[in-house]
C-alpha cells in the first residue's frame, strides 16, 4: 500500500482515500441498518409470541365457557358462613340474583333451630356434599354455621370461605330489636320476643339477659369453629383461633360498614361468581334488604357499660383485627377518585417465557 501511494499522483491518492472513506461510511450505514432490522425482527417475533400466548389463553377461555364441565373454575365452591345481623341477607340476595346469569348454584344451609354447630355425622355429610356433589358445582353455600375445617376430613380441595362482620355492639342492638319487631324483609312474620316493648337502653339499665355482655360472644366462635373451646364465653384461645382462621382460611372478610368495597373486591377476585355484583349492589332493589324495624341507637351510657366487660373487649379486638386486615387488602386493590371507587389494574406481567415453542 505504501509503494502504491508513492507511485500514485497526489490527486489520485486523495481520490482513493475519499473513495475508501465513502465505502466505509456506506458499509457502516448498512451494518447499522442490518442491526436495526435485527432489533425490529426480534421485537416482531416477541410480539408474535405474546400474541400467540394471549390467543391461546383466549381460546382456552372460550373452551371453558363452551364446555363448563372441563373448566377448573367449575369445581369451585364458595362458603359464606354468615354471622346474624351483619347485612348477610342483602349480600346473599346479590348471589341469588347473579346465579342464573353467571351459571352457578346457590344453596342455603338451614340448620335445626339455627344451631351453628353441626354434629360430627352432619359434618361428614356436609363435607361429602360440598366436595362430591358435582351436579351442584360451581356452588355458593350460605347459612348461619360456624367455620368448619375441611382438612380434618382428608379432602383434596377445600372450599373458598368468605364472610362479613360488624361492630359488636351495633350487631347486638340490631339483633335485640329484630327479635322484637322483625324487619322489612318479612314484616308479617311473628318474632320470638314480639310484644316486648322494652328498649335496649332499658334492658341494659335493668341488667337484662338479652343485652348482657355474654350475648356479644358470637363473631369469635363463628370464626373459631367446631371446637368446644370456641363456645366458652371469654376464651382467649378462641379469640386467637378466630384470628388465625380469618387470616389463613378465608379469602376475604368484609365489614358491614364498608359492604360496597367488599362486593367490589369479590367481583375482582371471583368474577366466576360475582361478575356484575358491584353494579347490582349500587342499583339493585335487594341491595339493602332486611333493615331492622323500630331500632333505636343505644345511648353513650349503655355502650360504655357494655364496653367495660372483658367479653366486649375481646369481640371488639377481633372486629378491629378483621377491619385492619380488610383495609390492608383494600388499600392494595382499590383507589378512590372524584368520590368513585375503582379497582387497580393488573400490576404484574410475565416476560422471558421459555421454551419458545
UniProtKB/TrEMBL annotation:
Membrane topology note: Single-pass type II membrane protein
Localisation: Golgi apparatus membrane
The UniProt record lists the keyword Transmembrane helix: yes
Keywords carried by this UniProt record: Coiled coil, Disulfide bond, Glycoprotein, Golgi apparatus, Membrane, Signal, Signal-anchor, Transferase, Transmembrane, Transmembrane helix
Signal peptide bounds: 1-23
Parts forming coiled coils: 24-51
Principal location listed in the UniProt entry: Golgi
Cellular component per GO, a single term: Golgi membrane
Annotated Gene3D superfamilies: P-loop containing nucleotide triphosphate hydrolases
GO molecular function terms noted in the UniProt entry: heparan sulfate 2-sulfotransferase activity
Family of this protein: Belongs to the sulfotransferase 3 family.
Stated name of the protein: Heparan sulfate 2-O-sulfotransferase 1
UniProt lineage: Eukaryota, Metazoa, Chordata, Craniata, Vertebrata
Gene designation per UniProt: LOC112260266
Amino acid at each position: 500500500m505504501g509503494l502504491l501511494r508513492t507511485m500514485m499522483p497526489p490527486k489520485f491518492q486523495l481520490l482513493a482515500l475519499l473513495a475508501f472513506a465513502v465505502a466505509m461510511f456506506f458499509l457502516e450505514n448498512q451494518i447499522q441498518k442490518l442491526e436495526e432490522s435485527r432489533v425490529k425482527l426480534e421485537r416482531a417475533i416477541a410480539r408474535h409470541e405474546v400474541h400467540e400466548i394471549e390467543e391461546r389463553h383466549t381460546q382456552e377461555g372460550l373452551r371453558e365457557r363452551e364446555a363448563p364441565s372441563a373448566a377448573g373454575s367449575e369445581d369451585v365452591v364458595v362458603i359464606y358462613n354468615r354471622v346474624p345481623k351483619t347485612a348477610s341477607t342483602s349480600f346473599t340476595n346479590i348471589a341469588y340474583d347473579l346465579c342464573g346469569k353467571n351459571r352457578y348454584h346457590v344453596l342455603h344451609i338451614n340448620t335445626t333451630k339455627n344451631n351453628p354447630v353441626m354434629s360430627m355425622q352432619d359434618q361428614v355429610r356436609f363435607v361429602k356434599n360440598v366436595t362430591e356433589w358435582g351436579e351442584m358445582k360451581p356452588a355458593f353455600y350460605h347459612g348461619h354455621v360456624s367455620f368448619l375445617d375441611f382438612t380434618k376430613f382428608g379432602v383434596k380441595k377445600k372450599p373458598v370461605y368468605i364472610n362479613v362482620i360488624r361492630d359488636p355492639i351495633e350487631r347486638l342492638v340490631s339483633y335485640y330489636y329484630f327479635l322484637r319487631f322483625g324487619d322489612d324483609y318479612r314484616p308479617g312474620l311473628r318474632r320470638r320476643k314480639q310484644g316486648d316493648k322494652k328498649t335496649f337502653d332499658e334492658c341494659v339499665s335493668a341488667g337484662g339477659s338479652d343485652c348482657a355482655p355474654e350475648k356479644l360472644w358470637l363473631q369469635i366462635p363463628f370464626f373459631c369453629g367446631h371446637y368446644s373451646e370456641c363456645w366458652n364465653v371469654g376464651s382467649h384461645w378462641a379469640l386467637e383461633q378466630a384470628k388465625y382462621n380469618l387470616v389463613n382460611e378465608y379469602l376475604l372478610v368484609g365489614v358491614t360498614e364498608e359492604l360496597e368495597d367488599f362486593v367490589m373486591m369479590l367481583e375482582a377476585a371471583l368474577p366466576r361468581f360475582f361478575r356484575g355484583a358491584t353494579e347490582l349492589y349500587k342499583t339493585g332493589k335487594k341491595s339493602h334488604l332486611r333493615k331492622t324495624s323500630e331500632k333505636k341507637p343505644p345511648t353513650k351510657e349503655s355502650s360504655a357499660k357494655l364496653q367495660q366487660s372483658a367479653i366486649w373487649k375481646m369481640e371488639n379486638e377481633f372486629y378491629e383485627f378483621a377491619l385492619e386486615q380488610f383495609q390492608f387488602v383494600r388499600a392494595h386493590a382499590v383507589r378512590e377518585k372524584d368520590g368513585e371507587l375503582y379497582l387497580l389494574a393488573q400490576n404484574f406481567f410475565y416476560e422471558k417465557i421459555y421454551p419458545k415453542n
